[in-house]
Write a structure and sequence with these properties.
There is one protein chain. The protein has 6 helices and 6 strands. The protein has a two-stranded antiparallel sheet with strand order 1-2. It has a two-stranded antiparallel ribbon with strand order 3-6. The protein has helices at residues 8-11, 30-36, 42-46, 74-78, 112-116, 146-150; strands spanning 52-54, 60-62, 94-98, 122-127, 130-136, 156-160. It is 19% helix and 18% strand. It has 2 domains: 3-78, Alpha-Beta Plaits (2-Layer Sandwich), CATH 3.30.70.20; 94-160, Alpha-Beta Plaits (2-Layer Sandwich).
């Protein structure tokens, strides 16, 4: 069988990423990602914050435990495939979500997520008989993930909205 006749969508059937509620890469065309990504690793090499890591089947994926996305667009510029939307579009429709594992919800004062949130999307509301509770102003959240790695209980995730 000639290499040019390979059907990549069939070849990648068993390595295809599970469509997830978590973002894979900023500006990526999700519907074409598993078919067109060659897993060359150029986006991984170019990421200045090293948050793009190899994942299932070698596909690149953002790992917010490593840090935050600065929306620099270097991953898209390095990619040899037509996988990315223009930088003028929104990077992704993803926002931070705080689970019940949050220390504040256990009545322990912690504001590490709010301290790391550059757009100040995480605010703390005073509560009677409890510590201030975190609240995410969703319109202000960029989904950068700066709050994820600093959370001591891993209570914050970035999910598609």
């Amino acid at each position: 069988m000639a290499h040019s006749s390979l059907n990549l969508s069939r070849r990648q059937l068993f390595t295809r990423r599970n469509t997830s509620e978590h973002p894979s890469l900023p500006w990526v065309k999700e519907s074409q990602f598993s078919d067109l990504c060659t897993q060359c690793g150029e986006c991984i090499k170019q990421c200045p914050t090293k948050i793009i890591q190899p994942s299932d089947g070698g596909f690149p994926r953002v790992d917010f435990q490593q840090g935050e996305c600065t929306f620099c667009y270097q991953c898209a510029e390095a990619c040899p495939e037509p996988l990315f939307h223009p930088k003028t579009e929104t990077a992704w429709q993803a926002k931070a979500h705080i689970s019940d594992a949050c220390l504040a919800k256990q009545n322990v004062d912690c504001r590490s997520c709010g301290d790391s949130c550059e757009p100040f999307a995480i605010k703390f509301k005073l509560a009677i008989g409890a510590v201030a509770q975190p609240h995410i102003e969703l319109p202000d959240c960029t989904g950068c993930g700066a709050c994820v790695s600093v959370c001591p209980t891993s209570a914050i995730t970035i999910k598609h909205t």
